[in-house]
Amino acid sequence: MVQGRVSFEREAPIPVPGTGEAIVRTTRVAVCHAAADSIRAPRGPDRTLGREFVGTVERIGPGSGPGPLRGSGANLVGKRVVGSASRACGSCDRCRSGLSGHCRDRRTLGEPGTEGCFADYFTVPVSSLVEVPPGIGDDEAVLSSTFAAASHLARAVPISPRILVSVIGDGAVGLVTAALLASRAETVRILTLRSSAAMVCEKWGLRHRPAGEAGRRHDQDLVVDTEGSDSSMSLAVGLARPRGMVFVSRTTGRAGGPGPSEDVCGAIAELELTVRGVRGEDFPGGVAILAGGSIPVAPLVASRLTLEQVPGCVVDPGFDGMVKVIASVPPPSH
Questions:
Q1: Mean pLDDT across the chain, nearest whole number?
Q2: Distance (Å, rounded) from C-alpha 305 to C-alpha 299?
Q3: Which of 3, 95, 149, 166 has its CA 20 to 30 A from that of 276?
């Protein structure tokens, strides 16, 4: 990204992996809404965008320790990998106490200060990488972060077969979360905003209903809000029964602005709701779900592009109606 605008650089230099890092040759990327927002309205210093990837480890830097699935970083050289976009500092009080997911100096691929994965090569900590099993193709593996976030969220929800559950937010994470929860209870439904998401629900056999038609009758035992905005929280509180539970996980990257309104906070107190925030990724679990094949990936992918085509797709008005866009990264010529 060039300051104030986005450009496609054909002669970008190959990065050098630092201590504990791997250099990854990118084969596929997914275009999340955070990356899309950066393309539409560039901000911050010059950097490479992108946070969702699959690629092959070319080599590792010095002092590369063990990753989550393999005994040594050296074992990952030549392997296909996926991994978290988040980088913890490893030295703050939270990291030292086992709360690295809440690192005070947490950085994210493609955000200011950290180079992203929309490139032939990029660097990433070895500790965040997970090897992709042979049975998973690149088009599936590139959605590992979606499945990792959904796996983490679904595992946090104490679901049982007879309770009523509504999922708010029809992005990829919301859809996969609803599918995982529906495998444990037939009473799960997802509230959709887009026709593309409703089509995914039809293909997966998920119960769904337009969000605008959902009655706020305070009858749902559990509400899972994957949007994390003031409007989605208002809907969640309107759906939840007295002493019910609301799980909030902001996954779109677009929800922002002020916190919950006074009306929402008042309703939480009046209904004695339990509200729990969930943020994190379960990459081993997400990869295992992909390997199991219980949730077909193809319905999620609205468009397949090359990396050079991504900026044009993102600025197209139809992009917001798509669930997921993936792009291939051709082998470098050098």
A1: 89
A2: 16
A3: 95
Contact 206, 175 (CB under 8 A): yes
pTM score, whole prediction: 0.91
Give the residue-averaged pLDDT of 199-224: 96
Q: How many Å apart are CA 204 and CA 183, to the nearest integer? A: 11
Domain with CATH 3.40.50.720 in the chain: 147-277
Domain with CATH 3.90.180.10 in the chain: 21-143+299-328
Q: Which of 164, 159, 158 lies closest to 220, judged by CA? A: 164
Kindly give, in sequence order, each residue whose CB lies less than 8 Å from that of residue 293, ignoring residues fewer than 6 positions away.
Answer: none
Average pLDDT, integer, range 265-289: 94
The answer to whether the CB of 129 falls within 8 A of the CB of 65 is no
Q: CATH top-level class for 21-143+299-328?
A: alpha beta
User: CATH homologous superfamily for 147-277?
Assistant: NAD(P)-binding Rossmann-like Domain (3.40.50.720)
Write out pLDDT tens, residues 219-255: 999 999 999 888 999 999 999 999 999 999 975 444 4
